[in-house]
Amino acid sequence: MQDYRALRIHRKGDDQFHVAVENLASDTLPQGDILVRIRYSDLNYKDALAAVGNPGVSRHFPHTPGIDAAGEVVSDVTGQYRPGDRVLISGYDFGMNSPGGLAQYCRVPLQWVCPCPPQLELNDAMIFGTAGLTAAMCLDKLARVQHRAISDTRLLVSGASGGVGSLAVAIAAKLGYQVIAMSGKAGAADSLRELGAQEVISSADWLTANKKALLKPQWHCAIDTLGGDALFNIVKATEREGAVAACGLAAGGSFAATVYPFILRGIALLGVDSAEQANDYKRKLWLHLATDLKPKSLRNLSQEISLEQVPEVLAQMRAGTSRGRYLVRID
Ligand SMILES: NC(=O)c1ccc[n+]([C@@H]2O[C@H](COP(=O)([O-])OP(=O)(O)OC[C@H]3O[C@@H](n4cnc5c(N)ncnc54)[C@H](OP(=O)(O)O)[C@@H]3O)[C@@H](O)[C@H]2O)c1
Fold it and tell me: In the chain, what percentage of residues exceed pLDDT 90?
């Protein structure tokens, strides 16, 4: 293996960070079981936070971000994979406090690696990436507590034009849910309907705390990517015995709550963490994403970009103006 290209985040001062593509020597990769030649990666909100030094994502700089990667095995000291095997890496500490997927190579522990299902191209796998795993996990958690027929279930998705949101809309519509997309972008309605949303509502009225103990019920379950007061407003507007899967914090990390939706309507609030799930569960979800959960519109909801374009898109993600998924072509 020779020198390789990677996106690097450098700390330039207490609150100043610089992001650019660099050539690195092969000995800058960490020790590990499996060396992978990365073909595609993608962008997630965590990468946008890493680029401005968020200590909840990474505390070590210079840093190679990217919490997802798809590529081919170069070598595996454990003998589980052969050179050329197609593999996927998502979550755990990948791209957080260890170098991630926005690079030509990575070296990772065996437990972080899943085989790429034969039905899935590497680029399609990275259109899903962590966002797709998270959307699939939210739907799986909701299905475990919701026993109403899918075709009769009104499902809200917030932050609907974002990565997790747009995939959740497309996958839920494919499964037959009546999808209500909540978005802050006035111009996103047509594309959200094309992904399968039956209704599109504005997030503007939902973002600030509402003094009412309960709101008029409008959906049976929800996937929330916003967090903050929006999350609790969504809980308060959920039908009796409904459930809300909370996976994000795009609008805030905290909210004021009361017990009323839980004790008067029996609402279940389900936390979702995609990163630290068991490798077996991720493999199962990848197989579903490759087959029954794969929307026809998958490629329409992503834009392919180069490593050089990543810093600009990460800034758009932090500003809340990005749309859908960003597939990063490594070569
Ligand atoms: N729990 C997990 O395992 C997990 C996994 C992946 C992601 N996440 C989290 O899920 C969230 C979404 O991730 P993503 O990758 O989909 O991000 P993204 O592509 O940046 O999408 C976030 C969307 O949220 C809305 N939004 C952004 N900032 C906002 C603000 N200040 N106020 C209101 N709405 C705002 C926008 O959609 P609209 O304009 O359409 O409203 C935006 O497109 C993030 O918080 C991320 O950290 C969690």
Answer: 92
CA of 254 to the centre of ligand 1 (A): 15
User: Per residue in 26-46, pLDDT tens?
Assistant: 899 999 999 999 999 999 999
Dihedral over alpha carbons 99, 102, 107, 111 (to 10 degrees): 90
Distance 138 CA to ligand 1 centre (A): 14
The pLDDT value given to residue 14: 77
Domain ranges for the chain = 4-116+297-329, 130-271
Task: Look at 126 and 59; give whichever has higher pLDDT.
Answer: 126
Q: Give first-to-last CA distance, the chain, whole Å.
A: 16
Residue 251 in contact with ligand 1 by CB distance below 6 A: yes
Is residue 159 in contact with ligand 1, taking CB distance under 6 Å? yes
State if residue 183 touches ligand 1 by the CB under 6 angstroms criterion. Answer: yes
Give me the helix-helix angle, 122-145 and 279-290, nearest 10°. 110
Candidate CATH numbers 3.40.50.720, 3.80.10.10, 3.40.640.10, 3.40.50.1010; the one for domain 130-271: 3.40.50.720
Superfamily the domain 4-116+297-329 falls into: Medium-chain alcohol dehydrogenases, catalytic domain (3.90.180.10)
